[in-house]
Amino acid sequence: MEDLDQFRSEVREWLEANCPESQRQPITAAEQFWGGRRAKFPSEDARLWYERMRDKGWIVPEWPAEYGGGGLSDQQGKIIKDEMKRINARTPVYGIGIWMLGPAILEYGNEQQKQQHIRAIINAETRWAQGYSEPGAGSDLASLQCKAEDMGDHFLVNGSKIWTTNADKCDWIFCLVRTDPEAKKQEGISFLLIDMDTPGISTTPIELISGESEFCQTFFDNVKVPKENLVGELNKGWSVAKALLVHERKLMAEMGSDSPRKIVVPNEAAHKYLEFEDGRIADAQLRSDLADYNMQMHAIALTHFRTFEEKTSGVRSAAPLVMKYLGTEAEKVKSELLLAIMGSRGLGWEGEGFEQDELDTLRLWAMSKAFTIAGGSSEIQLNVIAKSVLELPQNKEK
Ligand SMILES: Cc1cc2nc3c(=O)[nH]c(=O)nc-3n(C[C@H](O)[C@H](O)[C@H](O)COP(=O)(O)OP(=O)(O)OC[C@H]3O[C@@H](n4cnc5c(N)ncnc54)[C@H](O)[C@@H]3O)c2cc1C
Questions:
Q1: Domain membership flag for residue 331
Q2: In this structure, which residue's CA is closest to atom 45 in ligand 1?
Q3: Best probe residue, ligand 1, of 96, 101, 133, 220 (max atoms within 8 Å of C-beta)
Q4: Which of 186, 207, 236 marks a domain boundary?
């Protein structure tokens, strides 16, 4: 414990000395750095901050040092995160390589894949897209049809993936592909890493209600993929896919609290926009909704804390399975509540006449719906909880 206290003081001191003042402000979407072949730093300070964190090994403190991580424990990683949050330090580089693919490669990849891809993610040289969903295979992901035929020295990939976020800006895509059409659906799937510059790949953007999130449909037309890009065993990609989804759902559960924008907090919004009588919010319904929301958030924060403690002490816990559902649904409730509190001030989509916070709140309201779908919809999460946590009887036909 004393060691951790000592570590916390060192982290605090290092961050004070190394995090530029401009990198301690709320970040806008345009200021986020995602890395990749075509990426540019939004400012010199952003570059300096990223490079200092990379050289310190703190881009992902818990990843092994031999691949560019910090080689630190989960507890030390959490201390770094907490201390960064304390001074509002910006995330130096974003990416699903860090959040989702990296942990899956560390678990299932071979040494060559770890050396190549983990290091490139830390060095912000590669930006990754996720190729899971297909038209007709979203919730029922195992029905996917995009196929990879074994051609001896390579796979030949044909088909398409949909909702591939920012695929048009990414360098690589990890894909679930069907390698055995005869096998039971989960058993004929493999996990491939594909360079987006390979001939035969094209992307078509799809616009979203928030006006921001850039979805694509990604097409594969006779795309040759080297055999060494297979992660894990042939036809055993479903295990890799599920492990990666655990990381995706953890990310989604915390999405709202890690928003790049300055977060408008319902309690503060209430003071700004609502009338008070005798020190209480005058509107009884809003008063009650706000109290419910605060209690729910407190319970979620305690559960997050419990999950972390259970993980670090090696206790198997069902909590991570429920956090995606709870976190994203709470984010939706928060957004609805904020709009109710702001009244007509919360209805601005763009233009003058509204403060930036007000415009952001409406856009986050639209995005909050998406969080409950991405990475597995709330209905699917409830199915998982029914099966794996509550052990309720299942529909035998499935
Ligand atoms: C913001 C965002 C980013 C995304 N990014 C990516 C990405 O980068 N790569 C990628 O591959 N995919 C991505 N997705 C796609 C996402 O994984 C799918 O949208 C999701 O899995 C749901 O699939 P679907 O859209 O096909 O809906 P469907 O599966 O068609 O579901 C439609 C509705 O039916 C309900 N439903 C379906 N089956 C059941 C059931 N068995 N029981 C109860 N209800 C059911 C669902 O809950 C949903 O409400 C993203 C989605 C979003 C919103």
A1: yes
A2: 379
A3: 133
A4: 236
Greatest pairwise CA separation for the chain in angstroms: 78
Where residue 69 sits, what CATH number does that domain have?
1.10.540
Q: How far is CA 198 from CA 172, 202, 220, in A?
A: 10, 10, 10
**8 Å CB contact between 193 and 229:** yes
Nearest atom in ligand 1 to 213's CA: 1
Residue whose CA is closest, atom 52 of ligand 1? 374
24: left (phi over 0), alpha (psi -120 to 50) or beta: alpha
- 376 in ligand 1 pocket by Cβ < 6 Å? yes
Counting from 1 in the atom list of ligand 1, the atom nearest the Cα of 367 is: 1
pLDDT for position 212 = 63
The response to whether residue 163 sits with its C-beta less than 6 Å from ligand 1 reads yes
Q: Is the distance from the beta carbon of residue 218 to the nearest atom of ligand 1 less than 6 Å?
A: no
Q: Is the beta carbon of 164 within 6 A of some atom in ligand 1?
A: yes
Q: How crowded is residue 209: how many other Cβ atoms within 10 Å of its Cβ?
A: 11
Give me the amino acid identity at 151. Answer: M
Which CATH number covers residue 356? 1.20.140.10
pLDDT digits (tens, 9 = 90+) for 43-82: 999 999 999 999 999 999 999 999 999 999 999 999 999 9
Q: Tell how far the Cα of 138 is from the centroid of ligand 1, in angstroms.
A: 5
Both 64 and 156 in one domain: the answer is no
Both 383 and 267 in one domain: the answer is yes
Say how many Å lie between the CA of residue 376 and the centre of ligand 1: 6
Do 139 and 15 share a domain, yes or no? no
Same domain, 11 and 48: yes
How far apart are the two ends of the chain, measured CA to CA in Å? 49
pLDDT tens digit sequence for 309-366: 888 888 877 777 899 999 999 999 999 999 999 999 999 988 889 998 899 899 889 8
- Expressed as residue numbers, the domain containing 168 is 128-236
Residues of the chain with pLDDT under 50: 398
Residue with tokens 């995330």: 91
